[in-house]
Write a structure and sequence with these properties.
6-stranded antiparallel sheet; single chain; mainly beta; RmlC_Cupin_sf
């Protein structure tokens, strides 16, 4: 799909980016069943009914936190790194773009005043939740794809 990018390095899926310009009728699942976060887009006509339902208790095993960012205002540069902390490349997200960060490591640079939502498994465990490391130097940064 033109407005959807799977960010892969080798055979590893690092992220799924759905641009604000994505518009398709119906339901589209972007995430695969092995991911611990589900990402879907839904577009229904007026009058469509979604039957009342509840979600059943289902035990799931989560090994790594995956997060979804939804950009409401501004621009965000996402820098991708390997788990060994080597810089790979970057993408820029704009208003309405959404990203599911699936694996690897990442860092961010706010390019314009930013408002965004972050959705991930909780509760947040503070510093036990992440390992921080040095970012790539500005001369190493390679931005791929559209620059909203």
């Amino acid at each position: 799909m033109e407005h959807v990018e799977q960010v892969r390095f080798g055979d590893q899926l690092y992220a799924i980016i759905v641009r604000a310009s994505f518009r398709e009728p119906g339901i589209h699942f972007f995430s695969t069943p092995e991911l611990s976060q589900q990402l879907a887009f839904m577009s229904h006509p007026q009058g469509k009914t979604i039957e009342p339902h509840r979600h059943n208790k289902v035990t799931r095993e989560v090994h790594y936190t995956q997060e979804v960012l939804l950009i409401q205002k501004g621009k965000l540069q996402v820098d991708f790194y390997t788990v060994e902390e080597a810089y790979l490349e970057s993408r820029v997200l704009g208003v309405g773009d959404i990203i599911l960060l699936c694996s690897g490591a990442h860092g961010f640079h706010v390019l314009e005043p930013l408002e965004m939502f972050e959705i991930k498994q909780g509760p947040y465990s503070g510093e036990a939740d992440k390992t921080r490391f040095a970012e790539a130097s500005p001369s190493e940064i390679r931005i791929k794809g559209p620059n909203p």
